[in-house]
UniProtKB/TrEMBL annotation:
Gene3D superfamilies: P-loop containing nucleotide triphosphate hydrolases. Residues 1-155 form the RapZ-like N-terminal domain. The keyword GTP-binding applies. GO terms for molecular function: ATP binding; GTP binding. ATP binds at G8, L9, S10, G11, A12, G13, K14, S15. It comes from Gottschalkia purinilytica. The keyword ATP-binding applies. Residues 164-282 form the RapZ C-terminal domain. Keywords: ATP-binding, GTP-binding, Nucleotide-binding. This is Uncharacterized protein.
Amino acid sequence: MKFIIITGLSGAGKSQSLKILEDSGFYCMGNLPPALLPDFAELYLQSKDKMSNVALVINTRKGNFLNDLFSSLDAIDKLGFEYKILFLEASDKILVKRFKELRRPHPLSLDGRILDGIEKEREVLDEVKKKADYIIDTSNFTIAMLKEEITRIFLEGKEGKNLTISIVSFGFKKGIPLDADLVFDVRFLPNPFYIPELREFTGNDKEVRDYVMEWEQTKTFVNKLTDMIDFLIPFYIKEGKSQLVVAVGCTGGKHRSVTIANVLYEHLRDSGYRVIPNHRDCISYKGI
């Protein structure tokens, strides 16, 4: 039996996660008040026709949320009820953008300012996040990426670590990504832009990748870069970091940075990490 309690920040993808699990055969319920959790668990245990997998979204908007949730979790612990908590979050910038696109107010924003509601909700949910078994930062997720991650954790049993690594390629002409934790400048590498037959291609194309990767300085840099990232990641995980943004920049953000970002993405993916590629200045990108 799998019993999943979904919570987290408004706009971070709770409803989408519930829909993904429902499509996968879970019995799902949205916006359950925390105080009703023990009653639901008891009914589920007593039901003759109980289903093997259940997922609930816990409503953070009503009542004394923290006290109700923690007392409810204590109650179902005493029942010997096994459950997992999935916590969803995203950056302030992304959450504001999502609320503006949907033209709806934040549920905890009393004065109408979305950012105030986000900050208040982060504060309310801080203790809940610490109790979560899984934390997913959906800042750079598409719906397909979220589905892949939910499937990997709950259907395939590949839990991994509570760290999402975003590999962002960019062009210095348009500025360094504001949310970058680590920034690497690859403008020292030979530039395909000056090769006429490669100029209109990008680092996503084999022709450009082969050109960038054929140089000895590129191979040496990649080896040193992956060694350093492999060294750092376990410390970020130990620190409790849930989102790591690694930015790789070249002049225009189309050739060298895209190539190196793809190589780093493939290395981390093959190492078993939760990793997302994002070519900011090369292709369009649509999130959740």
